UniProtKB/TrEMBL annotation:
Keywords: Isomerase. Pathway: Carbohydrate biosynthesis. This is Triosephosphate isomerase. The keyword Isomerase applies. One of its GO terms (cellular component) is cytosol. Belongs to the triosephosphate isomerase family. It comes from Corchorus capsularis (Jute). The chain holds residues 54 to 302 of 308 of the full protein.
Length: 249
């Protein structure tokens, strides 16, 4: 971890029921979390209100997606205004499952980020290469292109956390080695330095996601440019998520 405040997000994806989420919230409420870490959880939309109302204020709440502009006649979508109305502070955008399963493209994701930021939400901006892209030596190209789409769209980086999530590591149990993650994080920081500014490069937190768990988080957190984690599967277990939150100390 570098000098910025460590950031750990839990992405619950499309998991849970009222019962299991109530249990998870109760586990999180009683967990001991290091004070010097930003902690955020992203429940499914339908449980945002329940979680926001029952979760300790120590943990902020994020949506997993948002509509690209102001709400209105967009059946099935959820607006940034509604997310804010529930007291949520963040939204995850560009998650690989939305890019590769739902088919969202760079430009659409960039627009979503710009709109969410303009309304005061923080953005967890996800990028990452597919296995075949890594094997073809295109990891940096793909990540830079996805990062550029955010950079081209957003007016400021004050409220953005970048999540580097190699797609081959997401939900596969195949975590990137600390060296593999660090290599990409440094390259991303360098890209920001050259293409945005030195200040943004040094201040923006770059977190890693992809099969992070209670057993591998400490080694990853030691790396200079890994400023936190975005956690999927392991964030559904309160005690394990707390272990990951506390991995930096
Ligand atoms: C994610 O979905 O952002 C993620 C990293 O998932 P997992 O931790 O399950 O690989």
């Amino acid at each position: 971890a570098g000098s910025g405040k460590f950031f750990v997000g839990g992405n619950w994806k499309c998991n849970g029921t009222k019962d299991s989420i109530t249990k998870l919230v109760s586990d999180l409420n009683s967990a001991k979390l290091e004070s010097d870490v930003d902690v955020v959880v992203a429940p499914p939309f339908v449980y945002l209100d329940l979680v926001k109302a029952s979760l300790t204020d120590r943990i902020e709440v994020s949506a997993q997606n948002s509509w690209v502009g102001k709400g209105g006649a967009f059946t099935g979508e959820i607006s940034v205004e509604q997310i804010k109305d529930l007291g949520c502070k963040w939204v995850i955008l560009g998650h690989s499952e939305r890019r590769h399963i739902i088919g969202e493209d760079d430009q659409f994701i960039g627009k979503k980020a710009a709109y969410a930021l303009s309304e005061g939400l923080g953005v967890i901006a996800c990028i990452g290469e597919l296995l075949e892209e890594r094997e073809a030596g295109k990891t940096f190209d793909v990540c830079f292109q996805q990062l550029k789409a955010f950079a081209d769209a957003v007016p400021s980086w004050d409220n953005i956390v970048i999540a580097y999530e190699p797609v081959w590591a997401i939900g596969t149990g195949k975590v990137a080695t600390p060296e593999q993650a660090q290599e990409v994080h440094v390259a991303l920081r360098d890209w920001l330095k050259k293409n945005v500014s030195e200040e943004v490069a040094s201040k923006t937190r770059i977190i890693y996601g992809g099969s992070v768990n209670g057993g591998n988080c400490v080694e990853l957190a030691k790396k200079e440019d890994i400023d936190g984690f975005l956690v999927g599967g392991a964030s559904l277990k309160g005690p394990e998520f707390a272990t990951i939150v506390n991995s930096v100390t």
